[in-house]
User: Fold these one by one.
Assistant:
Number 1:
Amino acid sequence: MKPIVLIHGYSAESSKSTKKAITKIYGDLPASLRKTFGAANVVEIDLSRYISLEDGLTVDDVSRAFDRTLHQNYSHLLQQGFHALVHSTGALVIRNWLRTFSPKPSPLTNLVYMAGANFGSGWAHIGQGQFAKWGRLIFQGSERGVRILHGLELGAEWTIDLHRHFLKSGNDLVKKYGVFEHVIVGTQAEEGWFKVPIRYAKEDGADGVVRVAASNVNFNYVRLEATEEAKALTWREVQQHAKRDRDLSSRRDDTLYRATSNSRPGLGGRPVVPFAIPYECAHSGDKMGVVTGKKPREQVMRLLDLALKTTTSSWPGRVAQFDAETDKTYQEALDGQAPTLKWISEPRAQYDRHAQVVIRMRDQDGRPVLHYDVFFDSVQGAADKSLPIRELIEHKHINGQTPNVIAFYLRTDKFDSDEEAWVPRVPKVDGCYLDISATEPETGDINYLPLRFEFTKAELEKYIRPHMTTIIDVVLQRVPSPNVYKMVRY
């Protein structure tokens, strides 16, 4: 067994750097690991501690500090190799270390995200507010770690680019880095959190801090750009399209933009990452927390045992084994989550599957488009019984630091108490249009060519997947008027 490195999440660091203080971060997880693998077989468990509550620090700083620590104090880990168990924001720390500092192949072999905040957390937005600033100062005597929260917020461009790195040629985590990823995340918040008047504390399809879809590194990516014909449109033609777009009754021209890039797990050789949801598992806490909780510990340890023993030969079978644990969880939720809790009318709804759709808007020069409208519109002529996609959308969030990115949260499967089952909703949507228009308020000499892109029923079922995030990169065509540059012949 190679050494195991544990990396904690945001705000989980102890105030002291002593071994005893750091050990408290992880509770009895290290003891459980030794019990599972045998003290003689666990060569070493390094209990990491990094600072996340200082406003001047970034995730890049933490990843760089991790790399410096490895080279200066733990060079044997780089030589022998190691495994890593990471919690919450630790997922961004280790993934960024892989992107920025790791050689290929990497000394890291098996990587397990325990409720990893791979695509952010709604709490990061709350944590940047003035109320959080006062709370941290008064009760902890600390700052908020605002720059780390910037990378942790839903729809952060830094995070989008981090994950896109591993989709590029030569950056495949399995083939080039030799890293096997695994995802473990709960979808049930502790009952006490339901008293908190903040939606992120009690969202269905989340663990009280991180959405399941935001934790899963199995994500879809689509890039939409103007066609060559659209790029050749005159200023007057672009004006006409923009005017027509403002008239909802005459919207059309869904051929002006096309998908120039798309990536899905299992497509084109891209591997599917093993992903599992333990039963009665929350983000943190000694009762239900994924790291220290007593209730999900047995199931979590089964999953960790599988993950830490993954090899090249066993990797292909891990997805099915993790899926089996998730199926077991849903059966237990069906049988054991009857609506008896005071604060929750239908506890099984916590296990409703959700998807997250993140849309980033930039122009052809890569600059953010800040003044825009985004609509999801039903396909004209759709069957009367078709479910409008807007009925699936439960929440949207415009990123505070990069407002050209908006994240939508959709309920893809809903528990039906009459049928005693989770009913898929996406197949009921008979396709939809994505409509995006934009303006440049500082000048009348710029127009954006509006986007109207159709997702067919089949495409929706491919891209709006339960427990998954889909990133849609939109490149809006920015067109200057003839007044911007004139040539006159004398």
Number 2:
Amino acid sequence: MSFTSDMPRHKNKTYATFLAAIFGSIGGHRFYLRGMSDALGWAHIAALPLALMMVLLWPDQPVFFLALPVVVSALLALLEAIVIGLTPDEKWDVHYNPGSGRSTKSGWPLAALLVLTFGAGAIGLITVIARSFDLLFTGGAYG
């Protein structure tokens, strides 16, 4: 008697959205959805050592430029969280849950998570734009 199931594991859309919003900058959602062989998940992780390498190579540069790989990774992860959360349940099941025997039924927790993700993404994007203009036009005179 085998204790493992032959049916594929059902992937929860709300949990995938949560992973993208919270742990997306290190590829948590990509590894949950596609496994450890996902190249874009590893690209998210590669942003951390890339930023560290930039700090070591150019220590006199503004921190904003040195942290740019991590910032871009985080903003892309928030965008992916929104795309994951807004995917219709039927399309989600066809793509990620074929043959799992269960269907996805999104509810209010996903809606609340999407509102918070939109807010965090907007704040992050406005911050990046404002800091970029500050560095471009004033040379970082305002911080």
